[in-house]
Amino acid sequence: MRDKRMTPSDVVAELSDGMTIGIGGWGSRRKPMALVRAILDSPLKDLTIVSYGGPDVGLLVAAGKVRKLVFGFVSLDTVAYDPHFQKARQAGDLDVTELDEGMFQCGLIAAGHRLPFLPIRAGLGSDVMRTNPELRTVRSPYDDEELVAMPALHLDVALVHMNRADQHGNAQYLGPDPYFDDLFCLAANRRYVSCEQVVDTFDGAVQTLLLNRMMVDGVVETPNGAHFTSCAPDYSRDEKFQRLYAEADWDCFADRFLSGGERGYQEAVRSWQ
Amino acid sequence: MAVTRAEVCVAACADLFAGDGEILASPMGFVPGLGARLARLTSEPDLLLSDGEAYLLTADGELEGWMPYRKVFDVVAHGTRHVVMGANQLDRFGNQNISAIGDHGKPTRQLLGFRGAPGNTVNNKTSYWIPRHSKRVLVDAVDVVSGVGYDKQAGPFHNIHRVVTNLAVFDFDTPDRSMRIVSVHPGVDVQEVHDQTGFELPRDEPAVTREPTEHELDLIRTVLDPDSKRDREVRV
Lengths: 273, 236
Fold this sequence. Notes:
Chain A is of the alpha/beta class.
């Protein structure tokens, strides 16, 4: 079996301008932030980001990496609105496909199942249909009910963060929620998993092994790699740092925390604390 | 101690769940959360309560189930859920906006996004909680339709139940399914409700919202919210 261990820069080297990148986690929870930071540190541009959005979206938008965003929400949870995302939207700078959260999941499942679309009731009557005029409805061939034909959300790449993984790409979440990370991986052509720790053997219930190695192309060991989002039970969200992120001037924040690579980031956070 | 406006609102939110039985209550906001827990302890003991993360909890906070985000979408589609959402804007037909103020292409204020509102409103019972009733929230027409109102084609399971604000309780039991006042909270002048609403409401003589019973007050004050956080969400 292959050893799939990589560094964050190895992952970024496999990405290219204009790619569609799905980012796992949920809001401000278990985001693959070390991989996001590696993208911030690269010349990549014009990305389409597909995310249940948290600070991953705000950071990438603030750094000018995003051409288009596919999302159901962007929130830092205790900070309701990400200021960088708000600023870009209010400037009219961002091309968006804004979906209902359930439609988003439906699109990932359709892509994972290699279907062009899946029917769903969500979206009917709402401005999801008006603001995304490419969306179509279908009539049930059985009872004529009209439903939304949610198109597959195909991803070039999925980036997710888990608590543990082995070198082959089997990966485990130890918190209470899998979020949608397995669906992101199945919807993508290339799948990279960062994790708190690479292990030889897994502890815990077998149901926590959310990803198996045929769903994963690369494994990156990034301790504290979801910071400042949560990675339960290893650590919770860094609320103080999140407030700093939300309130700081972007250039100052980027200069202080994002200019020295992942090691520099972790050191800057430690000295700030 | 006199009954406060916040306590009236908690009881009104508890009453939203009347008759719901064994379904998932999904209250957004502190006061509707208290209402759901109060209903579970009194009139609707079979309600399921989520912690808003991955757990189903009893009224005492004991674990009774697992409801991660992905499973919430299953429950939404199944319809065994009553959500109480907030609204940045709400119109007379119950269209709700939590997405953006202004033009969606270049909003004057970007809000959360559609979230689950489109799916919630066409799949499961939906109510709204508005802690600050004003013309800015109760508008003639919302800028972006997130939750779907009664003037839209929304399929067979569309069910907007009620709206509770800091001033009154509303439903949509009119011939054209537009909003009307069910009851005005004790101490609120009906005219104030009309004045603070950005659209015409029928000029019926509404009832007065009930006050919580002694038992309910005791639960609210000593068990559910001993620190009176409710008073921070509802100000008179």
